[in-house]
Structure formats: C-alpha cells, structure tokens
Amino acid sequence: LSSAGFVDENLEEKMRDEEEKGFACVGILDKIKVIDFMCHAHFEFEFGPNVNIIQGENGSGKSAIVAALQIGLGAVASSTERGKKLTDHIRNGQREAIISIFIRNRAQREKNTASQCVKLSNELRYRPDEFGDTIEIQRVLRRDSSGRGGGWSFKSWNGKRVNPANGRSAKRELCAILDHFNIQIGNPVSVLTQQKSKQFLARGKPAELYRFFMEATLLEDIRKSVSVMMDATKDMKYTLELKHEQLPEIKAVVEKLQKRFERAQGLKPLEEKIQRMEKMWAWKLVDEREDGVNKLKEKRRKLLKSMKGLEEELDESTERKKKAEEEFGDVKKGMDEKSEVLRVFLGELEKIKSEMRRLSEKKRVIEAGEKSARREYECALQMKRKLEKSMEAQKMKHVKSHDDRKKLEMQCSALERTLNEIDSGLSELERMIASIESEMQGYREQSRKFADDEERFRRKLKHLRGELSHLERMEENELIKWGRDTPGILRAIDQSVASNRFHHQPIGPIGRLVSVLDSKWARAVQSAVSRRWLSAYIVHDTHDEYELRRLTKNSVTIVVSSLTTDRYSIPDNAKPSKRYTSVLDMMSFNSNAVFNVLVDQCEIERQLLFENKNEMENVAWSGQSNVKTCWHLDGSQAYSRNGSDTFR
Fold it and tell me: In terms of CB atoms within 10 Å, which of 184, 217, 604, 611 comes out highest?
C-alpha cells in the first residue's frame, strides 16, 4: 500500500495472480536474510509461494538456510546437527550473527465494484494493526553471551519495531506467532534434517518409527492431553459420587429448615417488638460509645504526646543505627583486608619459625662464647691476684745488695706491665660480655615478639582450618554434585508429594539411582551417559511434568516416562556382539524407569567400552551393526558418522 492508502499496481497484480492460483496469504515464509551465519557472510533468499528447491554444491550453505530457519524460529542449537551451542553457528572470526525471517501476514482481498477499492480482511492475520502485511522475526547470536545467543525482536512490514503484546517476553511472543500460524518447528514433518532422514531410512527401530509417527501427527500431544483429561474426569466422577451420597442428608436439612421457616412466620409480631427494642438498644449503645469516644480522644491526645517523644527517640536511634552501619562497613572492610593479609601471614609464619631456629642456634653459640669469656676472665683475675701477692712479697723482702735491689725493681716493672696487660684484657672482656648481654637482650625481645606472632598466627590458622572443615563437610554432601539446588528440589518434591500434587512421585536425579559395577569404567560411563541425563528427573505424565517444572522453575531436565512399566527386554539382534562390554553391562539400576529412559535417550546398549585404544578404533570404524560409540578408560571416544571416522 502507498502512503495515500491506494494499492500499488505491481503489488496488486502480483497478489491477484497468487490469489487466483490459490496460494496462501498468511503464515508462509516470504524471505530469509542472514549475516555472518555459518558459511554465509551476507545472504538473502526470497521464497516463492509454492514449492522451493535450493540447489548448490556441497559446502555452499544449503543446510545453513534450514539451520537459520530452525534457530530463528526458536529450535535448540543441537537440533540443527551443525553445532552444540548457538555460538557454534557464528561465522569464524565474527562476534555475532543476525537472522531475519519474514512471514506473510496479508489478508484475502475483496474488490468493491462501486469504488474499485481493495478491502483487506483481518481474519487469520496476526496483530494486523501493528505488523501489517509482513512479520519480521530477527534474532542476534553473540559470542559474549555464554553460548545462549541473543534474544528476539519483531518488526512490521515497514521495518518499525513492534513490542510483544500484553507485556509478555520475546520468547512467548515468538511462540504466540508460531501457534497462530500453526508453524511447528520441532515437528519432523515440518523440518526433517539430513541426519534424521538417514537414521529414519537406514536404522530406524520400530519404537523410533512409532515415536516419529506420534510426533509428526501430533498424536503424542493429543495423548498427553487425553491423559490429563481422563485424570480430571476421574476426579470429577469421584466428586460427583460424593455429592450424590450427600444428597439425602442435604434434603433432610432442607426439610428441617423449611419447617423452621414456617414456624418463624408466626413470630412476626415478636420480631417487630424485637426491632423496636433493638433500636432503643442501639441508641443506648450510641450514648455509651460517645462516652467511650470522648475517653479515647483524651487517650489519643496523650498517645500523640508520647508518640512525639518516641519519634525523637526513633530519630536518635536511626542516627545511631546509621553510625553503627558505617562502623560495620569499616569493620567488614578491615576484615576483608585482614583476610587478604592472612594469606601472607601463613607464609611468614614458616619464615619466622626458621628465623627463630637460626636465632636459637646463634644464641647457643653466643652463650657458649660468654661462658668461655667468663672462664678466661676468672683465670685472669686469679693470675692478677697471684702477681699482686708476689709483688708485695718481693717488696717486703730484705735486699742486701744493690744488684739484688736493681734486679728486684726490674722484676717489679715487668710484673706491673703484666698486670697492666691483664687489666686491659679484663676491660676488653668486660666490654665484650656487656655487648653479648645487650645482644642477648635484643634476641630475647625479638624471640618474645616472634612467639607472640606465632601464637596469633596459630589462632588464625585454627579459625581458618575450622572454616575449611565446614566447607569440606559441605562437599561431602553427595546431592550437591548433581546440581547446587538438588537438596532444595528434593525437599520441595517431598512437600508436594505430601500435599498430593503429583500423580506419582518423581524420581531423580538419575545419577543417584545408578552405579558402576567396576570403578575403573566410571569416567567412561559418565561421559557416555553425560551429566545432562545423570542430573535429570523422571515423571509419570504431563501433569507431573508441569508441576515439577513449576517447582524447579524449569531449571532441570525432565523426562516423561511411565514409572509403572516393566524394564525393557532388549533382543539380541538389537545389541552389539557379545564379545564386547557395553555401558549397559557395566551399570546397575535401582529403578526400571531409569533403565528404560537411559536406553531410550542414551542408547547405552549400543555404546561399548574398551581398554585398548587400537581395538576401540577398529571396532568403531569397522561399521559393525548396533554400535553407536566406543569409549576408552580415559573418557576418549571413537565413532563413525556419515562415512567419517572420528576420534575425540
């Protein structure tokens, strides 16, 4: 349509031609445009109104168009068989990819012969006032979004952004559009990928073919809905039977009330008198209430006065609280700083211990030197005393000749020099002893400081070890390894079971209900089954699935499978050769439902275990029947897909 509201002649002719041929006006693809998606830097393709055939060489990007349609319309990344995450579909070297899908939203046109104008009917169109003739669905995939890709945005025929209706999310708006046009992106009849078609044609099991038929014809959804309705019908029948049983009692009560009503008709004069008395009583109550109101007003005045004082106290308390919060913030900040320093202290503690050992050794050497110096000092004092006595004795002797006196004076001079040398040595020893004692005092003070630091560090270390022990006890909780919220989910399930919200109690996580017969295969078995299925839950029907999704806020994998069905009996012609050990052979199951789910979802009977890598590769790549993947002890795997041999 032009801005004046008239129909463009070329568009009018094209629309008329398509309508005459009976092509759809709403709900079919008009165009797809991709930028930096898989192998396409910039690609745009306009669909015809009927069958479209896309031809090209291998690797030219034909499957990329189908993958873009799947991801753009909300399918999970793994369903494209081109990558496990949404970011795997972004072209190499680019930060983001853009997918734009245009869906036809035109109406059947009716020509008014009087005015020759075109009248557009809004039937079958989705929000025609906002979107117009075309709905553009755009999705942006970004590498910086943890593998989840970007969200959706919606535009009208002229490129103007349109917000989701009724404040719902973009995902719900997309689902509303797909439901309105009955576009089933997950239905294999709508999108049948290369891998699924090969498996379907080549190795499809009867159970898989039946499941494909149920999904393609929507009978699976109908079966689930019928199951829910049958359960509701049973509840309604039970309630109706209870009501029928209570009907005679209700009739008897009605008859009694009818008789009482008839007797009450004769009490009309008394009722009038009672009404007059009630009015008098009411006025009496009014008088009493007025007195009470006056008293309450006086009490209110006093309370207002006391409230004023309380408000002042509250202001003071608020101010004190504010100061306390500031002090708390400072203390918390200091604790964080001390926690940071504590890690350094733990290293310094060992250094201090080493330094104390070195100082103790040095102290021992110094003490030994001090003892030796004191012994020398005592010896020198004794020698000094002997020399002084000898000098006195020599002086007191009678010297008869001058020569003897002269010799004696020389001896005395020699003795005095010796005494001076001894005094000098003694002074040096005394200074040395004083220096050693001063140094020992410094070492003692430093040793006391080190001892205090060591004690403080020991207390902090004891506190940290207590916290570490607490964390280790938390790690010992086996439930947490299946998910941080697993204990809370199990408690919520028990509460819901006690409230009869489930038809059958859900079981899970699956990892709690299986075990490995030989621990050396634990890593290979866990890799084969995958953490997704080990942490999954099993419910009996869609009602229980809805209840569990509500409890878990859709945060876990949920499988709908009968909890009362016996364990599958797998025929020998559906298993690999008995010469090899399968994942199924190496597992023990506490529940038949867990066994059935792992056979359905993980095909554990077709996954083999090997200790020798060469043997593993030979079996995986030999094309033997009923062999899906071969696993080694270390968790590596080998398989063959579409003629390509792979080792990971």
Answer: 604
Tokens 């100082």 locate to: 359
**Token pair recorded at residue 594:** 């867990």
Angle at the Cα of 161 from the Cα atoms of 157 and 167, rounded to 5 degrees: 120
* Spatial separation of the C-alpha atoms in residues 383 and 616, rounded to whole Å: 96
As to burial, measured by CB atoms within 10 angstroms (0-12 exposed, 13-18 middle, 19+ buried), residue 6 is exposed
| pLDDT classification of 478: cutoffs 50, 70, 90 | low
Q: With the CA atoms of 315, 316, 321 and 327 taken in that order, what torsion angle do they form, in degrees rounded to the nearest 10?
A: 140
Residues 582-601 have pLDDT tens digits of 998 989 998 899 999 998 88
Mean pLDDT of 429-443: 69
- The structure's pTM equals 0.37
Q: What is the largest CA-CA distance in the chain?
A: 177
Is there a contact between 557 and 587 (Cβ–Cβ < 8 Å)?
Answer: no
CA dihedral 540, 545, 550, 552 (to 10 degrees): 80
Of the candidates 623, 456, 598, the one whose C-alpha atom is nearest the C-alpha of residue 516 is 598
Q: Classify residue 626 as left (phi > 0), alpha (psi -120 to 50) or beta.
A: left
106-158 pLDDT per residue, tens: 876 655 444 444 444 567 889 998 999 899 999 999 987 554 556 899 999 99
Cα dist from 436 to 278, 368, 370, 373, whole Å:
110, 11, 7, 10
pLDDT at 337 over 80: no
**CA-closest candidate to residue 61, choices 85, 97, 102:** 97
Of 561, 444, 589, nearest in space to 207 by CA: 561
Q: What angle do CA 40, 42, 43 make, to 5 degrees?
A: 80
Distant-in-sequence, close-in-space partners of 632: CB < 8 Å, separation ≥ 6? 524, 610, 611, 613, 616, 638
At residue 110, φ and ψ (nearest 5 deg) are: -120, 130
- Name the 3-class secondary structure at 22: coil
- For 186-204, b where at least 16 C-beta lie within 10 A, e where not — what string? eebeebebeeeeeeeeeee
Structure tokens at 601: 């979802």
